[in-house]
Specification:
elongated, single chain, four-stranded parallel β-sheet, Alpha-Beta Plaits, five-stranded parallel β-sheet, Rossmann fold, alpha/beta
């Protein structure tokens, strides 16, 4: 190939991270321009020409129109390079095809109307790597490909003819492993990308070490020694791994199907208790409610819940406060009656300087006071393990429930948006969302008192409830990073104190 070959970059289904690596070469781009003439590169220039010698293809091929476009590019190019893993083997896009289109629709659009489901917006075709459509002369692998690697390749290309079909066969291999449903936290190894965020947090931050990578190579999964299950390995149900997992490989069982069936059946579920942290998380994530004044937004939520079929909406915070008051009356320091993950941790660590009063728990107080099928909206995934509670729903799951019930919360009547029953009579006000002084009024008081009690009594690490309430169970965090880190630092310092 002569001097100054003409080079074009094209993108298909991908994040375009490979092209971004070239754009990030900064001053080294001058070296690249000294070697080749770039005639098409959408990320960094407006000009385009179909007169090129070398074509770099980024991304997988998803549609028949993509195939036609790729074939035209191939016909114009002397050399065609599969640029990055999406082009070379389909990468993540190829993995998605492990699920049928019906399964994908149910996951992303629960309760989708059948007619809409059949529309052109939901067309689906098998994902293909570039070499499944046209001949590929060379493969530059990586996710993303390093910019320096591209520069080295082009230097070689200019100096002497490139050896074509340089390809070590790294085809996408789909896993077919059984989902682990033995514990409160479920694990789907077929979705797992082994980022290890869950294991690092569980080990280094929580000091629980309930899960981690096992096996080797392609067989590596997140599990436990001797494959005994997370619960049997000391899991405290804080929900941090669920909140951290970027691909929903770790998850809690959702109550949405059962809840919607109970509501549709005519009031089989008649009471819902709202934890203000979960409410704030929900409002913060909702595209319409997040723009409203907090009190008004909360009225829309409560009005929507009543329209959905709940007869009464009560405040969970009131029972948290009562639980703490009962703990304070105990002669022996009681730290965790109202926080299940903290209780689990204290029991696992054998901290005998602390008492645990099962009868003081807020959910026990609710069950004693209320008569009916109760649902609790809470950020605490640990509550899902309490058999006496019929349903526990997180903020993300509440969004799914509204979608499943085909109810647009932005169009409900907010006039029926007051708490009823004992909560209203005791003068509780709407909690609001982050950024407002009234938010965390009760829960923050409890948390700060809990840390203070921990220091006085010599407790070790009560971080599960403090950190878990703020970002556990897959909920959107409802405190700023500074507040979370402050509490984390205090709780971590408690580890140095022996009971």
């Amino acid at each position: 190939m002569g001097n100054k070959p003409k080079v074009a970059f094209f993108d298909f289904a991908s994040c375009e991270g490979d092209q971004l690596q070239i754009a990030n070469l900064e001053e080294k781009i001058l070296d690249l321009l000294g070697l080749v003439e770039i005639v098409s590169f959408r990320e960094i220039m407006k000009e385009h020409s179909d007169d090129y010698d070398v074509a770099f293809i980024e991304g997988s091929i998803q549609r028949p129109s993509d195939e036609e476009r790729l074939k035209k590019i191939r016909s114009n190019a002397d050399l065609l390079i599969a640029f990055g893993n999406c082009a070379a083997n389909g990468n993540v896009n190829k993995l998605q095809k492990d699920w049928s289109i019906e399964e994908v629709k149910d996951e992303v659009y629960p309760g989708l109307d059948e007619e809409i489901s059949k529309s052109e917006f939901f067309d689906n075709f098998p994902c293909k790597a570039v070499d499944e459509v046209v001949k590929v002369d060379y493969y530059l692998r990586g996710c993303p490909v390093r910019g320096d690697r591209v520069l080295q390749f082009i230097e070689r290309l200019v100096k002497k003819p490139v050896e074509t079909n340089k390809n070590i066969d790294f085809k996408v291999m789909l896993r077919d492993k059984e989902v682990d449903e033995r514990s409160l936290v479920k694990y789907n190894p077929n979705k797992c990308i082994l980022c290890r965020r869950c294991a690092n947090f569980c080990q280094d931050v929580m000091s629980v070490d309930a899960l981690g990578p096992v096996e080797r190579g392609f067989e590596t999964i997140i599990s436990t020694p001797k494959d005994i299950g997370f619960d049997a390995n000391g899991c405290i149900h804080c929900g941090q791994c669920v909140a951290l997992c970027p691909v929903d490989s770790l998850y809690n069982e959702s109550p949405v199907e059962d809840l919607s069936a109970g509501l549709i059946d005519g009031g089989r579920v008649n009471i819902i208790a709202l934890d203000s942290i979960a409410v704030a998380s929900f409002l913060q994530e909702h595209s319409i409610l997040s723009e409203m004044e907090p009190t008004e937004a909360e009225r829309y939520l409560i009005g929507g819940l009543k329209k959905m079929g709940f007869d009464r909406v009560i405040q969970y915070d009131r029972f948290l406060e009562r639980s703490k008051e009962m703990d304070d009356d105990n002669e022996k320091p009681v730290l965790a009656s109202w926080c299940l993950p903290a209780r689990n941790h204290i029991e696992a660590e054998g901290i005998d300087t602390l008492a645990i009063e099962a009868g003081n728990t807020p959910w026990r107080l609710i069950l004693e006071e209320e008569d009916g099928d109760i649902c609790i909206m809470s950020p605490c995934s640990g509550l899902k393990a309490v058999e006496e509670i019929n349903h526990v729903i997180s903020a993300p799951e509440m969004i799914d429930l509204f979608n499943h019930m085909d109810l647009d919360i932005g169009f409900v009547d907010p006039s029926d948006g007051d708490y009823d029953g004992p909560c209203a009579s005791e003068g509780f006000k709407h909690s609001g969302i982050p950024g407002h002084d009234e938010y965390f009024k009760i829960t923050e008081k409890l948390a700060d008192e809990l840390l203070g009690s921990g220091k006085k009594s010599g407790a070790v690490n009560v971080v599960p409830c403090l950190y878990g309430c703020l970002s556990g169970g897959g909920n959107h965090p409802t405190a700023d990073d500074k507040k979370v880190l402050e509490r984390k630092d205090i709780a971590m310092s408690l580890k140095e104190v022996k009971p």
